[in-house]
## 1
Amino acid sequence: MRWSGMQRGDNRFFKRKKVTVVGSGNVGATAAFLAAQKELADIVLLDVVEGVPQGKALDMFEASPIQDFNTNLHGTNDYADTAGSDLVIITAGIARKPGMSRDDLLSTNVKIVADVTQNIVRHSPDCILLVVTNPLDAMVYTASRVSGFPRSRVIGMAGVLDSARMRSFIADALDVSIGDVSAFVLGGHGDAMVPLARYSTVGGIPITELMSADQVTAIAERTAQGGAEIVKLLKTGSAFYAPAAAVVEMAEAILKDQNRIFPCAVLLEGEYGVNGYFLGVPCKLGGGGMEGVMELDLSAEESAALMRSLDGVKTLVSEVDAMGFF
Ligand SMILES: NC(=O)c1ccc[n+]([C@@H]2O[C@H](COP(=O)([O-])OP(=O)(O)OC[C@H]3O[C@@H](n4cnc5c(N)ncnc54)[C@H](O)[C@@H]3O)[C@@H](O)[C@H]2O)c1
């Protein structure tokens, strides 16, 4: 039997999107697999370690007949294979071990993220960057400075994960469907993140009306320590299922032009009285990337908490600046 007509790669009316995931460790590989199962795009998985992205991509592809998805997956160590990516998820870097804070990862991961960004931008100058590597607020700043991309195309993943954690804890405490729970966590992706109780609802009702103040405080504290809770249990690394699901949800919103409202780490240009720093705030994700920041009227207490979180981000950014990369 022979086919006549178009070959793969020929001009065609509709093309699949291309997503590159840099770092094929726990978060990267899980994100690639989730995105593949959702058929969001063809996927390139890249890592510095030879064989690992190739092996994982092939293994995932071999799951496609069973999981019933049509996605091409390609593992590589060569940035040339990432050329023309529409969206790139950066997960490369080291993860936390017990006793380490996210900030302890700074000096190693700045070098990695700067190098990755440079290579990605060379081959995909029009892509949208979603940054996952920790310490998140400093890494998304690094990717922004190295790429020179507008703020619509450099977005950090933190708030979607932190809010998902908070939603899980609320649903568990009130024994209600996770689908009816929404939650909002603002600020940096550190211990000073700001879980906003009055914007966290069950069936539209603020949790402050459904729980005692002590319960709300306990959930907010558990959310802020959500990453450390998993690190302590795993002992050899940090969370990856929920982080991967979070970044894939952001990627989906962009690739399908969904105009979803998510808390993301974005470059503020005067919003919330902040200029020039990445901070977790509600924004719209759609086909244009980060399409706009939603400015909430925060109470004095919430505002003060956001500014405390900003102080942590500023410290990290000044450490990055002192390393002299830009
Ligand atoms: N933003 C968040 O909410 C969030 C959540 C979870 C994890 N993280 C962070 O994501 C990062 C990855 O976590 P993980 O659990 O997947 O770690 P991991 O160790 O399992 O995977 C990291 C991968 O990056 C690769 N890598 C290292 N240097 C590279 C380079 N220069 N180019 C390409 N690949 C390179 C490693 O070989 C490894 O495969 C960590 O920094 C972690 O702290 C962030």
## 2
Amino acid sequence: MVQRGELVKRRGLDWLQALIDVRVFEQQLVELHEQGSAVLGAVHLCIGQEAVAVGVAGDLAPGDQITVSHRGHGLMLARGLDPERMYAEIFGRATGYCGGKGGSMHIACPELGVAGANGIVGGGIPMALGLARAASQRGTDNVGVAIFGDGAANTGNLYETMNLAAVWRAPLILVCENNGYTEFTPARDVTAGPGIYTRAAGFGIPGVVADGEDVVDVNLAMAAALRRARAGDGPTLIECRTTRWRGHHEGDERYAGVYREAPDTSGDPIDRLTHELDQLGLDGSGERAAAQTRARTRLRNARDAALAAPEPELETAFTGVFVG
Ligand SMILES: Cc1ncc(C[n+]2csc(CCOP(=O)(O)OP(=O)(O)O)c2C)c(N)n1
């Protein structure tokens, strides 16, 4: 069993940078969205939820594949995707991961282990099982991972997937990012039971809950699930409890006071890790400031390069898309 303090000493500074990278990447999207026209299509931000992305991605191997929900920028960045190409995709530019045709909700880069984001709520869950099954049929110890929201956890996709994954002992990790809201509906109004993680018991697989505002807790839960999956012991469901700081999508602030109170930001994952590093004598506060400067410089450059990139050529309008 890895001791928490040792883990933070070994990896805490890298995680702090990774959390800040995700936060700054999205803060720049907030600014651009407020200014007007650069951000094409809907964007759903994971500000406040960064610990899930960084904790989940932390121990994944190059050949592992994840399917990501509509709120997936954090996972993609933590998996190592190029922020310039992500911005370009969100801005509808030819240099984006999908040639500018997918937008925020459809970024994919299977070469770096992101099989795809998905605008269909719960749609990535069975796909991750297919990826997990393929990995074991090929004789590798790679895994499939699905990240999805609490709303997606109420769709049949999850139960059909848990059933087959258990029967097949598939190397699958199901990560529910429970941010307390399904679009504009509080989870308490639509989600039964003592916790989503308890639903795994019906399929005879482990279900665990992690503090989704604590990158270390998420990483420890994920590491245990990865050990099981890679050893051939089958799937795990992890529920990460976290807080969505922004609206469901950028631009829904006008409804914010109608359907929810101001979010509780007291569990800020960046503050918490900074504090823990300080406690361990690793100058979390100083490192945080330096990491912020690095992130701002790098991501400002990435954003500006993406904004300067060309739009797709008209002749490519029908390539790479399904035309029925
Ligand atoms: C199958 C399907 N039904 C409905 C929608 C509309 N919709 C978009 S996001 C969303 C809520 C998703 O909530 P959750 O899974 O908790 O994810 P979160 O937005 O909180 O990250 C809904 C209902 C959709 N995109 N797909």
